[in-house]
Design goal:
By secondary structure, the protein is mainly β. Helices cover 3% and strands 42% of the residues. The strands form 3 sheets. Strands 2, 4, 5, 7, 8 and 9 form a 6-stranded mixed β-sheet that branches.
Length: 130
């Protein structure tokens, strides 16, 4: 048989179907995460961090616990499209240290240092001695 034919009803996913959204804040503290989700189910997914594939990330959802820019290549048997990108920022866990100055006139000056140095509240508490 010689000739050509057209397969109708087959088109690649649309940008609307491939849109990703975050299920919570995209800036958070270490040991937390955010779930990114592709709008349409039933397609083929390959998540990317930057320009690199995220190994094994082929589901409609991705749990992100690392900083980076994420997107998803969404496919079907007729083609593929790359989603919008979402940036995730993971803040490091804060650290603190307490130092004391030498005793002077019966008092000791305690100093607490934080990293990062902003956005922290401090409340001193005196323990009762028994």
């Amino acid at each position: 048989m010689i000739g050509s034919f057209t397969v109708q009803g087959c088109s690649p996913p649309t940008s609307q179907q491939a849109t990703i959204s975050a299920g919570g804040p995209t800036t958070f503290c270490k040991s937390s995460n955010v779930v990114l989700t592709v709008a349409t189910s039933g397609l083929i997914y390959q998540w990317k961090k930057g320009s690199n594939n995220v190994t094994g990330a082929t589901l409609q959802e991705l749990h992100c616990a690392k900083s980076g820019t994420y997107k998803c290549v969404v496919s079907n048997s007729c083609g593929s499209i790359t989603s919008n990108a979402i940036s995730v920022a993971v803040n490091p866990a804060p650290t603190s240290s307490v130092s004391q100055s030498p005793c002077s006139s019966g008092a000791v000056l305690l100093t607490c240092t934080f990293t990062p140095s902003t956005g922290r509240n401090l409340q001193w508490k005196r323990e009762q001695q028994t």
